[in-house]
Amino acid sequence: MNAGHARATRGEGQRTVVNEATTSLLARYAVDLDFRNLPGAVRREVRRLFLNWVGCALGGSTQEAIAKAIAAVREFAGPAEVGILGRSERLDALNATLINCMSSAVLTFDDTHLPSITHPSGPVVSTALAVAERKPVPGSEFVAAVALGIEASCRMGAMLTVPPARSNTSLFMTGIAGTIGSAIAAGKLMKLDQNQLQQAIGLAATQSAGLREMHGTMASSFVCGNAARSGLLAATFAKHGFTSGMCSIEGPKGYGNVFGNPACTSMVSEGLGSRYELLSLTYKPYPCGVAIHPVIDAARQILDQGPLHPDEISTCEISVHPIGLILTARLHPTSALEAQVSIPHWIAATLLHGTAGLSEATEECVHDPAIAALRARVKLRGDERIPPTGAAIRIVMADGRILETSLEHCRGSVERPMSEGDLEEKFVGQAMPIIGPKNVSRVIEMCRAVEAMEDVGAIARVCAR
């Protein structure tokens, strides 16, 4: 698909070639997309990401941050029309979208688009499900809308991070890109026309925000939730005739040039409709930042070499790609939230417990004296030769022995994807304590057959407590 002609503009001391048609192209593609034209592989991936999202939302629903967020929004909430997965509360659609997305992100167990380090399903699926609860939506329309929103989020993120783009690594890309994906998914379900969708994209773009300084705090999940709520708000405003800039993505003062500095706009247009970024989504086997996963797998390889007594470890040297240090080098986490982005915590917990699951993501584990002592002996090093999905470990024992291992691609990466069985096991582990075995089996069946459902909102009702 041709993205249209380009023109040169000058601003802020630099000359940027921008694509005038990017926003309208994306809106036209969204309007024209029909479920029947989606490849089977795309439909399958939507089913996978949907099951993963529901499990993450259920697993996170009992966290302290979610209870506090619900208490806060209730001061302003409207009619109780949309349910909160894993809870008895119902809220207005905007706030329910916020909370459900926060629940899916609060344990840092959500999916990832690795090229842009975006977690797209949270904002998109939360928004689409809220729309589906307000008015019955058939599964085919839901799947098409989710596919659109995920694809848009991934392409927006890639546009800002793939060279020649020079996006600041301090930007929290889920908040930046997820807002637009959320708006497009909602707009598709609301049956907006091209002009309205173009307005919605602009309204979403001007609300995009997110700072990685929020990592390790409750605000980390809020960034994702706000992207979902802002996208739904953008689509709703556009539905009622509210206007925005029509060149919001490619304009000289628009989304691309502001966040991408400049943006790689070809990432939006190239292969749109024939090549799907969502097919490169990855799913987390461990509840922590994705840059930590290679370290966990490397630690498990060390344990496979034979029994290890952590008290006998003098130093544990970790080498990862430099981006891993930027995102997850928190040396001395003081809470479970901070531990989500701490390589030292997860290497210590894995070596001590032999596993890296939800139990290692608790306050008790973070404050375990044995784990804290081992964390203090971890040394981190960035190495450009190591791929972002790889890691190397060198452990020096008190008796002088050296244990070493390395890997290029961790479990859950594109090269080593989670299987259907892996995703189902992950879902059960999070959902079972919340909705019980009968409903766990029922929800798995519903997610696997979502495109054939007459009313997708039924899934949310089954997931209520």
Low-confidence stretches: 1-20
Instruction: Give the radius of gyration.
Output: 22 Å
Give the CATH H-level superfamily of the largest domain.
2-methylcitrate dehydratase PrpD
CATH architecture of the largest domain: Orthogonal Bundle
Counting structural domains, the number is 2
Overall outline: globular
Please state how the strands of the largest beta sheet are arranged side by side. 8-7-9-10
Class derived from helix and strand content: alpha+beta
What is the succession of H and E elements? Answer: EEHHHEEHEHHHHHHHEHEHHHHHEEEHH
Please give the CATH class of the largest domain. Mainly Alpha
Instruction: Give the proportion of residues in helices.
Output: 40-55%
CATH topology title of the largest domain: 2-methylcitrate dehydratase PrpD
Give a short summary of the structure.
With 465 residues, the protein is of the alpha+beta class. It is 50% helix and 10% strand.
Description:
Residues 1-20 have low confidence and may be disordered. With 465 residues, the protein is an alpha+beta fold. Helix 7 (173-189) packs antiparallel against helix 8 (194-205). The protein has two domains: 6-283 and 430-462, Orthogonal Bundle (2-methylcitrate dehydratase PrpD); 290-407, 2-Layer Sandwich (60s Ribosomal Protein L30, Chain: A). It has 19 helices and ten strands. It starts with 5 loop residues before the first strand and ends with a helix.
